[in-house]
Amino acid sequence: MKGNVLVGQSGGPTAVINSSLAGVFKTAMERGYNKVYGMRYGIQGFLDEQYIDMSDIIKNELDLELLKRTPSAFLGTCRYKLPEIHEDKAVYERIFALLDKLNIEVFVYIGGNDSMDTIRKLFDYSLLTGATQRFVGCPKTIDNDLAITDHTPGFGSAAKYIATSTKEVIYDAMGFSYKKKNVTVIEIMGRNAGWLTGAAALSKGDDCDGPDLIYLPEMPFDVEHFTERVKELLEKKDVVVAVVSEGIKTKEGKYVCEFTAGSETRDAFGHIQMTGTASYLAEVVHQTLGCKTRAVELSTLQRAAAHLTSKIDVDEAFNVGGATVKAADEGSSGVMVVIDRVSDDPYQSATGVYDVHRIANGEKVVPRKWINEEGDYVTEEFMDYCRPLIQGQYNPIMVEGLPRHLNMNIHNYDWARKAGGNQTIT
Length: 426
What we know:
The protein has 13 helices and 13 strands. By secondary structure, the chain is of the alpha/beta class. The longest helix is centred in the middle third of the chain and has 20 residues. 49% of the residues are buried.
């Protein structure tokens, strides 16, 4: 009989991170593994022996469908940086002792750049010690900044939410435009990569002009030039909507959010906590031009909006989760599953595996050719890349007017009855 699978979630969640978890669980069961253990709060919680038997939670296919539709990280997440092996070997001895105790054959970590660093270190330690566990990374990040893979699960749904919200904000601003000039600045997540910010351009269509300006962190940002561009646009129209990445920075390398009185807190990986970029720019425009301004910060909604997921994204996240177990079951270790785009029309993708050493701590940014010459918008090529990833709906299961989610602390077994009896799950 095979041993067990251990799976954890790390870093910022996405609207489809639990679809990958569902894929891991289902494939592990289908391939004959004895148990699937879930780390509570990632590797940090596992070091404290915090884990659960997933079979105690997922009793049937309906629970699996609920899990796929549940936002946030179901198991809990962390931002914990493992030390280098030579810095603290005791941490690794502790982890591998626990793996042996639980008879773990396959270790799956669902996460982004920093999580792949964890896979890299654990795999390298296994090579040094001759440990037999196999370590596979499952990609996840709304930022879409993982190297090698065409895109990451989580990005498509976040892009869909951002484009939808941008469109709605534009309509809202238009409703207040009678004899009033107004400027709205929308702040989108993205520290060094502007994939999410660029996705706001997808709001442009037959019924909406889309935002007027889009600023990505890949290009130096000039506050004075930004204000001049807004002024020029206000001379031609009453409503201006600008979309900016939280990570835009000056040519000197200073983040615009650092001009505010916001937090200077840093996480375990040294990342500054970003907030206040849109508020700062809206105030600058108000003080300089005297017009009405509003700042909109989508914040965690970008990664939590499970009610507006892309079906493509949910399905790919589930398939990628399954592919991690499949890869490990067939002997791979020290790799991350990647998504390869097979075609755009019709859109098709496939999964593969790639050496995690080539991915961990790397960063894929938006190519310069996909940003316009002025640096204040994205090109049609960028939008062509994104459009297939936001297609389709993955409808919530509604109970008493609200989406039902899987919660390990609450009984879910009567949810189908409250939802109206027999339902077709789509």
